[in-house]
Specification:
Helix content: 25-40%
Strand order of the largest sheet: 2-3-1-4-7-8-9
Mean pLDDT: 94
Number of strands: 9
Shape: globular
Strand content: 25-35%
Order of helices and strands: HEHEHEHEHEEHHEEE
Number of domains: 1
Radius of gyration: 16 Å
Number of helices: 7
Low-confidence stretches: none
Oligomer: single chain
Largest sheet: 7 strands, antiparallel
Length: about 180
């Protein structure tokens, strides 16, 4: 594992509190071979966030919720290959997989000022790092729900941005990686 991937792994797994898990919301449209890796022998727990039976071309580009474990082949593949590629976001929560699926599905569709529904690609780190600082306290509380913190790549991918919602305030911290990309 590279120093960068090892550093990201530390930020994700080393400070977990009791009953917390690490989840990734991954963008199938940005990730080559995501489905091949999800269905590999060392298969993580995952679910497509789109409901129902999907056509293969839609399943390939859909967002997926994945439960990450520190020693799995999938986590290793994701951290080695995905950082800096805007493949998705990470969330730390003391909530089970079903609760997290329900939580993240709530944000897939938003309505524009004319009331027309649109897909909201919040799972793209470029979107979430721009969106969260613009939110009201009520919106932030909704986006966080059961989540204690979000971690995602910064624009230059040399740092991790950690968002927390503490006492009604959004806190953002930039955490350096072990070495540059």
């Amino acid at each position: 594992m590279t120093q960068v991937a090892a550093s990201i792994k530390e930020y994700l797994f080393d400070d977990l509190q009791r009953d917390e898990s690490v989840y990734a919301v991954l963008d199938g449209a940005s990730i080559p071979d995501l489905l091949d890796n999800l269905y590999a022998e060392d298969r993580p727990e995952f679910e497509c966030l789109y409901r129902g039976e999907l056509e293969p071309d839609i399943a390939e580009v859909a967002p997926y919720l994945v439960l990450l474990t520190p020693g799995s082949e999938f986590s290793r593949w994701l951290l080695l290959n995905g950082w800096g590629q805007h493949w998705g976001i990470f969330a730390i929560a003391a909530a089970d997989f079903r609760i997290m699926c329900r939580h993240f599905r709530k944000f897939l569709t938003v309505h524009n000022p004319d009331g027309k529904p649109q897909l909201f690609r919040y799972y793209d780190p470029r979107v979430l790092r721009t969106y969260l600082p613009t939110c009201t306290a009520e919106e932030i509380a909704a986006v966080f729900g059961p989540i204690s913190r979000y971690l995602l790549e910064d624009e230059d991918a040399k740092t991790v941005i950690r968002f927390r919602y503490e006492s009604g305030n959004l806190e953002a911290a930039k955490l350096p990686l072990a070495s540059s990309i």
